[in-house]
Specification:
5 helices
Length: 142
C-alpha cells in the first residue's frame, strides 16, 4: 500500500471518528442513566441511537478492510463512497437532533409540549375508535 493510500484512508478514518464522537456526545446527556427514566422521548432517542450506532459499526468494519486493497483507484473510490455515507448519517443525525434540541429551547418548549399533548390525545382517541376513519373497512351496503 502506498503512502498516498494510507493518507487517504487516514482522512476517511478521521472523518468517521469525528462524526462518531459528535453523535456520541449528543446522546450522552440525553441518555444517561437518570435521563432515560424521565425523558419523555427516551424510546425515540434509543431507536435513533441504535440506528446511527449500527450504521457506524457497519461502516467501521468496511473502512478497516480497506487496508487489504492494493489498487490505488479502488482505495480512493471506496473512501469517497464511505465519506458520502458519513455525510448521509450526519444529515440524519442533525435532522432528528434539531427536532429534539428545539424541545429544550425555552422559546419553543411550551408550544411544542402543548402540541405533543394534543397529538398524543388525538392519536389515543383514534386508536380507541378503531383507527383512522379513512382506513376502516366499509361495508358493501350504505
Amino acid at each position: 500500500m502506498t503512502l498516498g493510500q494510507q493518507i487517504r484512508i487516514a482522512q476517511t478514518t478521521t472523518e468517521f471518528d469525528r462524526l462518531s464522537t459528535r453523535i456520541g456526545d449528543w446522546f450522552l446527556p440525553r441518555l444517561d442513566d437518570t435521563a432515560v427514566a424521565y425523558h419523555p422521548y427516551s424510546t425515540q432517542l434509543l431507536t435513533l441511537k441504535s440506528l446511527l450506532t449500527t450504521s457506524l459499526k457497519a461502516l467501521r468494519g468496511e473502512i478497516s478492510r480497506l487496508t487489504d486493497t492494493k489498487d490505488r483507484g479502488a482505495v480512493y473510490e471506496q473512501c469517497r463512497l464511505f465519506e458520502r455515507r458519513l455525510v448521509w448519517l450526519e444529515r440524519v443525525s442533525r435532522f432528528f437532533g434539531d427536532k429534539f434540541d428545539q424541545r429544550e429551547d425555552p422559546r419553543y418548549r411550551m408550544v411544542l409540549n402543548a402540541a405533543d399533548a394534543i397529538a398524543a390525545r388525538s392519536n389515543h382517541g383514534l386508536v380507541s375508535l378503531g383507527g383512522f376513519p379513512a382506513c376502516r373497512r366499509r361495508s358493501a351496503h350504505p
